[in-house]
Structure formats: C-alpha cells, structure tokens
Design brief:
1 helix; 5 strands; three-stranded antiparallel β-sheet; 86 residues; binds zinc ion
C-alpha cells in the first residue's frame, strides 16, 4: 500500500495503486502527496466509499471523515465527535 501524506495536517492514507490525481485528506481536505513509503495491507484498516466505491486504507484506530476521492462524509462516530471539539 502506497503511503500518502496530507500537506496541511500530516494525516495519512494508503492506496493500493497510484491515481491520475492526488487524493484529498480525509480529515481536512488538504492536498496529499505520496511519501514513497509503503505499508502492508494487514497493518491497515480498509474503507470503501459508499458514494464512489473507491477503497482506501488507514491505520487501525484512525477513521476517515471525508472520502479522499469525492465529497462523501462517513458516518461520524462518538470518538470523532470528541476529537472535533478539541
Ligand atoms: Zn489533512
Ligand atoms: Zn467517494
């Protein structure tokens, strides 16, 4: 899985393949760039967007807010609500 890092907040996602355009940060919608690092799929949690059906990976315990590829918002969990209050 190729690692992408947000230029704004440092958030990371992992993709199985390179895309024609860079993904957007699932937390802050900042532009993401490939870091050159990679991780094994078994270390990561897979997410699939209900809207565009694209899949991506994040570290376990990290949850996406927005789809990196479209404007879909994932259902907000109690944990993320608490983080947003900070
Ligand atoms: Zn970000
Ligand atoms: Zn999507």
């Amino acid at each position: 899985m190729k690692e992408f890092e947000c230029k704004r907040c440092g958030g990371r996602i992992y993709l199985a393949q390179e895309l024609e355009r860079d993904p957007l940060c699932p937390s802050c919608r900042g532009g993401m760039v490939q870091t050159g690092d990679s991780k094994k799929a078994k270390e990561l949690q897979k997410y699939e967007c209900f809207e565009c059906k694209m899949s991506f990976y994040m570290k376990e315990k990290e949850k996406p807010y927005k789809c990196p590829f479209c404007n879909y918002s994932f259902p907000v969990t109690p944990r993320i609500k608490q983080e947003e209050r900070l």
